[in-house]
Amino acid sequence: MIHVYLFAFVLGGVLLVASILLGGDADGDGALDVEGGGETAGGTDSDSGSLGVVAALRSLRFWTFLTAFFGLTGLVLGGFDLAPPWITLALAVAVGAGTAAGAAAVLQWLQKEQSGAAAEAGDYVGKTARVIVGFKAGATGKVRVELRGAEVDLLARTDDEHGFSSGDAAVIIDIDDTVARVARLSAFHDSPVQS
After folding, report:
1. For residue 128, what is the domain's CATH number?
2. In principle, which of 69, 81, 138, 156 could form an S-S bond with 180, CB 3.0–4.6 Å?
3. Is pTM, for the whole model, over 0.85?
4. Which domain holds residue 63?
5. Is 159 inside any structural domain?
C-alpha cells in the first residue's frame, strides 16, 4: 500500500508545483452554470452551496490537492508505522478530502471577491477598446473593452474630428459619468508623454 501513497504523493505534488509555476485556471472553478439556474462567476443562487460542491468535484485543482495530501498522509503514517493499515487509509482519505475541500472553498471565495468588486473609472482608463457602433465627434457610439476577463460595452464619445467606424481600435482616455472619452490609438501613442 505504501507504493500507492508514494505514487499519489508524487503525482499530486507534480500537479501542484505545475499549477503554481504555470498559473491559470484550466478547470474554471467558480464559473459553473449547471442546467440553467446555477451559479455563475459573480452571481449567486439558492442552491449555491450544492453547486459549489459540484464545482469542486469537477475541479482538477480539488483532485490535485486530494491526491497530494492523501499520499503525504499515507506515506507519513504508513512509512513510520504509526497506525494500522486500515486507520492509515481512513486518515489519508479524510486528510486528503478535507484539505482539498478547504483549498477549493478558499480559492472559490477569493475568486468571488475578485470578480465581485465593482470596476471604477480608473480601471478603464488606458485600456484599448474596439468600436462596435461607429460615431463622429460630438456624437455617441459604443465601444467594447476587456476588463477583468470579461467584455464590457460602454457608451463612447470623442473629440477626434474624423470619428470612429465600427471595428476601429481606440484607447479610453477618460470616463465621464458612464460615458468613455476615447482617442485614436495611434494618436495616443504618438503624443508626447505629459508629466
Report:
1. 2.40.50.140
2. 156
3. no
4. 2-116
5. yes
- Angle at CA 150, nearest 5°, toward 144 and 156? 20
The structural domain count of the chain equals: 2
Compute the CA torsion angle 142, 148, 149, 155 (nearest 10 deg). -10
Q: 192, 133, 186, 191: which is closest to 157 by C-alpha?
A: 133
Q: Using an 8 Å Cβ cutoff, are 111 and 81 in contact?
A: no
* DSSP 8-state assignment for residue 37: S
Length of the chain: 195
Residue 34 CA neighbour count, 13 Å, CB half: 17
Q: What is the rounded radius of gyration, in angstroms, for the C-alpha atoms of the chain? A: 25
Q: Count H helices, E strands: the chain?
A: 6, 5
Q: Decide which of 116, 138, 168 is a domain's last residue.
A: 116
Residue range 123-132: mean pLDDT, rounded:
90
